[in-house]
Amino acid sequence: MRRTSISKQYAAIFIFAIAYLCIGWFVHNSYYQLMMTLVLIWAAVGVSWNTLSGYSGMISFGHAAFFGLGGYTTTIAFVTFGITPWIGIPLGVVVGVIAGILIGLPTFRLRGHYFALAMLAYPLAMLYVFEWMGYQEVPLPMKREDPAFYAEFNDPRVYMALALVLLIVCMIVALHVERSRFGMSLMAIKQNEPAASAAGINAWRWKMLAMMLSAAMGAAAGGLYVMVLLVVTPQTMFGALVSAQALIMALFGGVGVFWGPVIGAAVLVPLAETLNAHLGSVLPGIQGVVYGIAIIIITLVAPEGIYWRVRDFLAARQPARVLAPLPASRPIAESINVTPIMAPTDCKPAAKDGKVLLSLDHVTRAFGGLKAVDDVTLGIRAGAIHGIIGPNGAGKTTLFNVVNGFLGADSGSITLAGTELVGLAPHDVCGLGIGRTFQVIRAFPRMSVLENVIVGAFIGAQTDTEAERLAMEALDRVGLAGEQAHATAGGLTTKQLRLMELARALAPRPRLLLLDETLAGLAHDALDDILATLRRINRDGVTIAIIEHTMQAMMKLVDEFSVLDHGKLIASGAPTKVVKDPAVIEAYLGRKWMERAKDSVA
Amino acid sequence: MEALKWFTVDFFQALAAGLLVGGTYGLMCVGLGIIFGVMRVVNFAQGDFMMLGMYVTYYLVTFFGIQTLFGPYVGPIVGATLAGPVVFAVGWLVHKFLLARVTGARVISAEAEGHYTQIIMTLGVALVLANGGLILFGSVPLSVRTPLSSESWEVSLIFFNQARTVAFVLAVIAALGLYAFLTRTNLGKALRAAADNPTAAAYVGINVDRCHRLAFALGVGVTAIAGGLIASSQSFQPYIGFDFVIVMYAGVVLGGMGSILGAFWGGLTIGLVQQMSTLILPYQLQNTAIFVVFLLIVFFRPQGMFGRVWERT
Hints:
Oligomer: heterodimer
Shape of chain A: elongated
Number of domains of chain B: 2
Number of strands of chain A: 12
Number of helices of chain A: 25
Helix content of chain A: 55-70%
Largest sheet of chain A: 6 strands, mixed
Shape of chain B: globular
Number of helices of chain B: 11
Distance between the termini of chain B: 59 Å
Largest interface: A-B, 48 and 49 residues
Distance between the termini of chain A: 51 Å
CATH topology of the largest domain in chain A: ABC transporter involved in vitamin B12 uptake, BtuC
Largest sheet of chain B: 2 strands, antiparallel
Strand order of the largest sheet of chain A: 8-9-10-5-11-12
Number of domains of chain A: 3
């Protein structure tokens, strides 16, 4: 997926602005002038919604809260304190952002349905409060002495120009969000939040920033709306239809792209307004019916919005770029230019009897009465490949989850080169130099391979260009560089996905990799390729802890084994020693394995 | 002493009113609870189906002669009960032609993104119903007038509004009937199986899509009956649905999403909260009180009082 450059997008935005202004300037019917202004305002509200919900995937049914607070702050500042809307709107933005923070703080703990429902409750609660405070219908006073100072203009085209400025600002902000680590992180969170946080993304922080930005845009649009209509009522500012409109503009036009709400508003606002003007007296709810039908149709026909439908259609007409599939049997070592990778400075290349890098000390984690990890004490040496084996349900993945911060430890201590990890969030653990992959592959399916890996690189990079460089380097290390880097992750083979996940974990140059059944579901030759890659990564100085069931492969790969059973560590040490341990044979390997192993391993 | 006595009377009066209102809220929540429990779909249009139930009751009672046929006492109750099947049919059609395309066995395993399409679809249905209601029924608030609405039974200084008391009794009977249907009949058991594990249910030969349709129609039908029951003690207009969506979700979440009995208790509690809040808050803010309680529940006990906790890694 290649995208148009930022400068081309800027050009498109300015062409749109000038064209709109030109058309608007020659419209003299005040009704159409108002409609053209409303299109811009609702487009801005849609961009606001998109900035939170479109990118991060947390659907908000409560954007009326920000719109209404912006509008009411502007109104009350004007009516009660005589403050001009030129200051009132920025005040409204401040109030909106504060509300965004106060709403986000508790609400981000919720997911999916619960988040959407909770967001619906905020504006409705505010609506009753404003009604109760006696703001049922507040007109803005006419200021005859100095109209421009109070932002009251006789020429409606001035309002249109102001709305255009607001929308352009929102679009440019959204463009930069989309093209930076901000937007990429939000999209990663949308597609797979656990994977994003394990890859070092501070999900909470990005969501909060998105919420604040979104609230600011919504509040500004609300303030401008009041300026244009000169009257506020709780229903027009906080009503459910306002929240719905915010979402409909974006959904109809295109989710997660800033052109989407603009397209949505340009189609739907004139449609609904025209019908309302002609039929409103006979059919008073026609506007809402149009919006309702619009989203029903769009969810059936183009669930991601018109923009993406058209884009897919155009893309399908162009000759498809065929991606060369990864030759399955080509030895990885030959397929890439092996550039010597600088190991992190404090990490010496493979010393089998080196110092302990990761140390677990009496770590316990229970689910109710079940101790999934029971008093485990083990050390993983710097530079080693450490295999973790055991029967299903032995607590291997739970152990990884406790180390990387998905789960808290009930007791005990985990240190990475002396730094305590217990109590840290997954992205902080990642930031300290622990990468991980998952038993069930957690890719960001809508992103390209390179973008998947860039998301993982952010934590180790100051700038976005550096992140891209780190990502390319990591792809090179696993043999996915070149044309494949631009393929969409959703269409990869299992082997390519495993390698991509490996690259994502490698990108910020971690000291320790936690690999959870990286070899599962692979064909024999693919398995050898990945084993070779793992050995090479290890030679470059990365310590590896790997969970695996394929004993033959593990015997060839690892320097040390730890064996878990029912959450307890039952054996630990060199492979040849561990596989002869009666307890291990009893719990995991079985006697037959012993018979066969006598010949092959000795 | 006198002040304390009157406060005590006010308190018990609010308690009584809360219980009576809460009974119908409970039934409403049971309707929503069935839909969420079986389909795992957040139905934003639930309040608007309830609104539909109110109008159907109103027209049945006043225009189709149910009032004259059954008299002013029994008429509104019969009207509310008949609103159930009418809205059941509407729900059946809405599911068949709209929701079925974005829900059901096909998308049950899809992660979050599939669910968003469903939520948004129901939002569209809600907008069409509410605004279509405005076109069809007008914006003038109505209520189903019965002589019971203004009559009360007095039990030691506490008044029990007769219309609300009758509605409460009926709501409890309807909720119990539904519970019996779900636990005793084969169809009900199939519904619960489809709710518990759609994949496994499909493997043992249960038509999951049909179960969803039945659950949706049943759910909106039950909520419509509850709507018809409160229509005789509360005025309504086509936009009333959005307020009640929050009331219903507050109840369902409080009771634990997916638990039918829990939904009834949840709705009852919400009714109590609404009425008791008038003791300390201005009358206009009683819905704000519900929203605040709803938010508190979602934050501190999202699994509700009766719900199960599940953890996944």
